[in-house]
Write a structure and sequence with these properties.
This protein is 67% helix and 0% strand. It is mainly alpha-helical. It has two domains: 67 residues, no CATH class; 350 residues, no CATH class. Helix 7 packs antiparallel against helix 8, helix 7 packs antiparallel against helix 16 and helix 9 packs antiparallel against helix 16. The relative contact order is 0.11.
Length: 467
């Protein structure tokens, strides 16, 4: 029954996608982040749901006029440069067969990234994309949080098996990146004129946020716990009610500290002594050293995709690092794509983070709550990825590229609120928005025809009566 339900939803979306391909983007995002077919036990686990949706999107893209040109954003150029570099390093990869397969998989992510930038062309579609991203991972976090509470934290929380978040550490990072999307979702709902039933989504979002945070604790991930602490501090600082949120977080921490198991405390207690006592952490340090050795030997191309396998361990890795994944977005990019790949990756991540912060500040000065909320959401999510990804090999994760999509689209769809104040080129690349088109301070609304001021305000005015 579960298989029929999931596959039925996907098949029912295909005709709609052919007519409105942006709906297919929402379906693709749902399938890539939540992977609902992986919760099935029958034919749906191997059914090509994502491939069918992607084909329908491309056919709809060719036939539908409801699309835009690729936004003129520097992130698009960096993504194209990375894609070209991936193709180059694949031709000289240590493991050619595996590298070609991974190059095809990453190419699919990048192609859908560019298509998304073309099809999400108004603020309502952008909002729906954020909702799908938040709930796709948030519902998995809700399930994990309930599981943690019902079992007393005796077992670890995992994501859907065989997916990007199947491992407990990967799931913890995904939950942390999703917390700002869930936290700010009610504020975004209030900025749009939506049907009344959306108020229930706004009311449910704080509870999903809470259980998702509990799910991070239930993963037993040390890196996830550190990232969770940083995200909670950032959310508190960006909240309009800092004191209330800070008190709520403090109460939750005190209550949670008394509920966690001895096993969990022992696991988190190894954070301070991981380098001396934890073989897993020492293995990661050895893997990072191996990535540096590869980059030193091949600085411009690295070892290509899947470089950390087979004979490469004996040739480049110390004994403690052999057999371990590199477990770092930075060292993964360095070892597989060389110094040019790491530089482009850091430019994309760091530059987007700084742009989101700059956008948030300027939107706040203009009083644009919608842009400010989007920018704060993206900023904290990118920060969580930068911090949590330092100990996880997720450099090619489509969730990261989804956040880049959101930032580019916000920059593109709100040109008056953002581009004009930054003095940068508008979304069509025709220079800065003219001064007369720039947003102004609040002005009193125009009064209806036939309206006259109250009697006491007409005193002393020409034509007014003093009494």
């Amino acid at each position: 029954m579960r298989d029929l339900f999931v596959v039925g939803i996907v098949l029912a979306s295909l005709p709609v996608t052919l007519i409105r391909p942006w709906v297919g983007i929402l379906m693709w995002t749902w399938l890539s982040l939540m992977s609902p077919h992986r919760y099935c036990w029958g034919f749906a686990t191997t059914f090509p749901v994502a491939e069918l949706v992607a084909i329908a999107i491309m056919v709809g893209l060719l036939s539908s006029p409801d699309r835009q040109r690729l936004p003129h954003a520097w992130q698009v150029g960096v993504l194209v440069a990375l894609w070209c570099l991936f193709g180059l390093t694949t031709t000289v990869a240590f493991n050619p067969a595996d590298a070609r397969y991974q190059f095809i998989e990453v190419s699919k992510v990048l192609v859908m990234t560019f298509i998304t930038l073309m099809l999400i062309n108004d603020r309502r579609k952008l909002f729906y994309l954020v909702v799908v991203m938040a709930l796709s991972v948030g519902l998995v976090g809700l399930k994990g949080g309930l599981f943690t509470l019902l079992t007393g934290g005796q077992h670890r929380v995992y994501g859907p098996p065989g997916t990007f978040i199947g491992d407990n550490n990967d799931a913890a990072l995904a939950f942390c990146m999703t917390l700002p999307l869930l936290y700010f979702l009610p504020r975004l709902i209030r900025t749009l004129e939506l049907p009344r039933w959306w108020v229930w989504v706004a009311r449910a979002a704080p509870f999903i946020t809470l259980f998702t945070a509990v799910a991070v604790v239930g993963t037993y991930s040390r890196g996830g716990f550190i990232t969770l602490a940083a995200v909670l501090v950032a959310l508190t600082w960006r909240s309009r009610y800092r004191a209330v949120v800070a008190v709520a977080v403090a109460i939750a921490v005190v209550v949670g500290a008394g509920m966690v198991t001895t096993q969990w405390k022992a696991r988190m207690g190894t954070i301070e002594t991981a380098e001396e006592e934890d073989a897993s952490f020492r293995g990661r340090l050895g893997a990072w050293e191996g990535a540096r050795n590869i980059a030193h030997d091949r600085p411009f191309t690295g070892g290509g995709f899947h470089a950390f396998e087979g004979w490469v361990w004996d040739a480049y890795f110390p004994a403690e690092g052999q057999g371990h994944d590199v477990h770092s977005i930075y060292f993964e990019m360095l070892g597989e794509q060389g110094y040019p790949g790491l530089a482009l990756f850091l430019l994309l991540l760091g530059g987007s983070f700084l742009q989101a912060e700059r956008m948030r500040r300027r939107a706040r000065r203009l009083g644009n709550t919608e842009v400010e909320t989007y920018a704060a959401t993206i900023e904290i999510a990118l920060g969580a990825y930068a911090l949590g990804g330092a100990a996880l090999g997720k450099a090619y994760w489509d969730y990261f590229y989804d956040l880049i999509i959101l930032l580019v689209l916000v920059r593109h769809l709100f040109p008056l609120e953002v581009a004009a104040t930054e003095g940068e080129a508008g979304p069509t690349g025709q220079g800065a928005v003219p001064a007369e088109a720039a947003p102004t301070r609040w002005r009193p609304p125009a009064q209806p025809a036939g309206w006259s001021p109250p009697l006491h305000r007409r005193q002393g005015r020409p034509g007014g009566s003093p009494r």
